[in-house]
Amino acid sequence: MLSSRLILSVVFTGSCVLVDAASPYVVDDYDVLQYINPLIGSSDGGNVFAGATLPYGMAKAVADTDSESNQGGFTYDGSNITGFSSMHDSGTGGSPSLGNFPLFPYASCKNDDLNGCVFPKKSRKQAYKSDSVKSSPGYFDIELVSGVRVEMTASHHTSLFRFHFPSGEESGSPLILLDLSDLSDTRQDNGSISIDRSSGRMTGNAKFLPSFGSGSYNLHFCADFSSSGWLRDSGIFVNTRASNDVHDLTISRSINGYPLPGGGFIRFQPPSDGIVNARVGVSFISSEQACSHAEAEIPNFEFEATRQNAVDKWTEKMEPIRVSREGVKSSVLTNFYSGIYRTMVNPQNYTGENPLWTSTEPYFDSFYCLWDSFRSQIPFLTIFDPNSATQMVRSLIDTQRHLGWLPDCRMSLCKGFTQGGSNADNILVDAFVKGLDDEVDWQAGYAAVQKDAEEEPFDWSSEGRGGLKSWKEVNYIPVEDFDYEGFGTMTRSISRTLEYSYNDYAIAQMARAMNKTSDAERYEKRSLAWRNLFKKDQTSFINGTDTGFKGFFQPRYYNGTWGHQDPLTCSNIDNSGSICSLQNTAGETFESSIWEYQFFVPHDMATLVKMLGGPNNFVKRLDYLHDTNITYIGNEPAFLTVFQYHYAGRPAKSTARVRTYIPDYFSPTPAGLPGNDDSGAMGSFVAMSMMGLFPNPGQSVYLITVPFFKSVNIKSPLTGKTATVHVTNWDQFNSLNNTGGTGFIKSATLNGKPYTRNWLDHDFFTEGQELVLTLSGKESSWGTAPEDRPPSLSISSSDLEARGWGVIEEESSDHIPLLHSDQRHFARHGMHFDHHARFDKKW
Ligand SMILES: *[C@@H]1O[C@H](CO)[C@@H](O)[C@H](O)[C@H]1NC(C)=O
Ligand SMILES: *[C@@H]1O[C@H](CO)[C@@H](O)[C@H](O)[C@H]1NC(C)=O
Ligand SMILES: *[C@@H]1O[C@H](CO)[C@@H](O)[C@H](O)[C@H]1NC(C)=O
Ligand SMILES: *[C@@H]1O[C@H](CO)[C@@H](O)[C@H](O)[C@H]1NC(C)=O
Ligand SMILES: *[C@@H]1O[C@H](CO)[C@@H](O)[C@H](O)[C@H]1NC(C)=O
Ligand SMILES: *[C@@H]1O[C@H](CO)[C@@H](O)[C@H](O)[C@H]1NC(C)=O
Ligand SMILES: *[C@@H]1O[C@H](CO)[C@@H](O)[C@H](O)[C@H]1NC(C)=O
Ligand SMILES: *[C@@H]1O[C@H](CO)[C@@H](O)[C@H](O)[C@H]1NC(C)=O
């Protein structure tokens, strides 16, 4: 494997721990796992996986429900339990993923007759005792109304279930069935199972469909059982009937479109302690591999040791971060640490489990979807778990190497659907500018992102970008484009234009750092394409009343003529029933409105601020977006808008805005998430917002807000150095009933020197810098000066003029920040801001 160390300045020391320079703000160590509640987001559409797993684990054990919102398996909403299965995704939309080969227990069959047990999923389901549910890292526990209690834990590829049956005089002969089905009932032919008569071991496999993508996948299993009761009998079931004579079953797809119920069962003589253990290994390769995983990982059904191993793994993962507990309620800590926990449930590490190609590179799956995770989840892991983030990046590059394209969404070994931009570009570049290069083949990485920018895939519903011919010709994605080279849903022309612009900017940064100068100029120029959809005189009305704002993005035909989309269509307050998803023909913005997308220019904010009328008007618009609920924090495009006040020199307003969302919209309860967690995207939003440093993803830029804690310490696993954020006069501003502080930044020091910029770069973390904040009750002038605003790829009015572009009109005389003074610094990070991008297109 090629290791191409580039120009990045960060010094890597592997994962060895360096001696920490003594910080006066060291936070006491404490057990963090007490503050992790995996049940957060397990109801009301959070769709979080609430069960037992290791960090990035493949085996994910939980009770599955029949809830309409059972994407994560278990839903804490009182719906019925259909089984206990070993594979899940977390927080996703789409149809429910995985949930394959569920087990289901009976304390005994009616009249001790096999056919007295109910086998099919639809009829066997059963309610659970609501107050019996317990969950903690690596552990889940629930009791069915039948009185059967099921505890579960997991190793990397294996689930361990401990079934407690009522024991005593009248106890019967417990039965456990294994069903050849999945959560969404997608089994294709042929499923099969074989049961070993003497040991009761069940092996087999079946083919299923991914939940938001194309293709299919095969999953294999190996289930073993242990009990103090003797093995009584075993066999198979088909539909409602079972037999202990038959031990092999191959089952066809379906009767009438619904997969025919079928599987195996095992029965025990009454165990003296009432316990039957079931160990289920899973593998995408073979049932032999599933068995060898299970035997290696949990050789003797050791429940406590397996659980302890999970606790140890999670404890180790949580080690880099500690916040001060002084003056905060435990619910604040639980909100924070549980958010961090969820960033490491997905993606899943399927290294050694990929049947699609042979490689020595890591293989990660359940990138579900990168449109969600590029915004803060993977950037958070880049700080907090860089070794894993590096493996994810290597996996993305290796996937491109073997399948031809970087994924945009990937689940269950299949391609997921693209939602807009080629978002892996943002993720690769984020890792690149932050110096992750341990065995990353960045030349291959560059080739992969460049392919996204240059070649249109035949099926751009699943990868890459559509409309590239127009993109290169007219520099925007036209509405009703004529695109015969590749195929995808011809919608989202505005959001795709904005996202492709940002993708191209990301690629430009990488090209710049690699001294690919002409590429860098090409992509910088293309990154200005968002301007071509800005219609200066476009207005926006709410209920017939002019909002007073002028200038919005609009759809545009190839010939340059404007189309029309109401800027509020598909906003959170649009009650017209419009849908802006993948398929509809009306929506030129994906899952959101023009109002919200007007802020998605993360690389060229200075120009955007100018185009929206200068800082004061920009701030008014951003306030309007939030105050009238046009945006909804339960979907990822809202994330950055919370912090974009920074670009208008109003960092205090970002701090104030964060506090309107946390904890009101993100609270540590099962119903506490405002939307799908999306594989931990929401978790990372909570974590990074609360630590007071939110990323502009794809850039070495973190926007500073007041943290919810007196101190935050983050130790870089790469350098062993500890970065600190500390509030000196915390006690004075912690009056909000200990729920996270009040006040705004009055002054700051970085490593002891006065610091007025309202942002930091990634060196803060790798070099273990120390940011000390002093608060005041009101907004101050800290971080407001033009030179204190975050960097922006900007070109001056005179440059625009020189290129025949005219000057961007401003309604305000506020000074607009242009280039940042410290060029040397950005160059080191692969960023370049004194380049005068050219752009030939009129607008
Ligand atoms: C659970 O299943 C039982 C028995 O099938 C049924 O009576 C009950 O309505 C179900 N509960 C829910 C919430 O679906
Ligand atoms: C399914 O199994 C049956 C019986 O073994 C066999 O005839 C058939 O070809 C199999 N179909 C597929 C798609 O594997
Ligand atoms: C992923 O799994 C492989 C194989 O088990 C292991 O070598 C690697 O360290 C794992 N990666 C992470 C980030 O846990
Ligand atoms: C890029 O060029 C500069 C100046 O010539 C040089 O110092 C640097 O090492 C080059 N970087 C790469 C990655 O080739
Ligand atoms: C617009 O009118 C609807 C229906 O009368 C109302 O529910 C909604 O609150 C109004 N929206 C605004 C922003 O005034
Ligand atoms: C451009 O195309 C649109 C859509 O086909 C059409 O309505 C409009 O008249 C055309 N404009 C010109 C100037 O040809
Ligand atoms: C926005 O939503 C919040 C919470 O649902 C509500 O309290 C507030 O009144 C809404 N604001 C407007 C302007 O509708
Ligand atoms: C703090 O809690 C008290 C009592 O519950 C309440 O009256 C007060 O309004 C709260 N203060 C704030 C700032 O939330």
Please supply descriptive tags for the structure shown above:
binds 2-acetamido-2-deoxy-beta-D-glucopyranose, Glycosyl hydrolase family fold, globular, alpha+beta, disordered N terminus, six-stranded mixed beta sheet, 843 residues, nine-stranded antiparallel beta sheet, Beta-galactosidase, Chain A, domain 5
Question: What would you note in describing this structure?
Answer:
There is one protein chain. By secondary structure, this protein is α+β, with helices and mostly antiparallel strands. It has 2 domains: about 60-315, Distorted Sandwich (Beta-galactosidase, Chain A, domain 5); about 330-790, Glycosyl hydrolase family fold. Helices cover about 25% and strands about 20% of the residues. It is built from 20 helices and 34 strands. The strands form 9 sheets. The chain has a 9-stranded antiparallel beta sheet. A 6-stranded mixed beta sheet has the order 20-29-30-34-31-32. Strand 9 (about 190-195) and strand 10 form a beta hairpin. Helix 7 crosses helix 8, helix 8 runs antiparallel to helix 9 (about 440-455) and helix 9 (about 440-455) packs antiparallel against helix 11. It is globular, with a radius of gyration of 28 Å. The protein starts with about 60 loop residues before the first strand and ends in a 15-residue tail after the last helix. Residues about 1-20 and about 810-843 have low confidence and may be disordered. Bound molecules: 2-acetamido-2-deoxy-beta-D-glucopyranose (NAG) (8 copies). The site of one 2-acetamido-2-deoxy-beta-D-glucopyranose has 2 residues, from loops. Keywords: Signal. InterPro entries: 6-hairpin_glycosidase_sf, GH-type_carb-bd, GH92_a_mannosidase_put, GH92_N, Glyco_hydro_92, PNGase. One of its GO terms (molecular function) is peptide-N4-(N-acetyl-beta-glucosaminyl)asparagine amidase activity. This is Glycosyl hydrolase family 92 domain-containing protein.
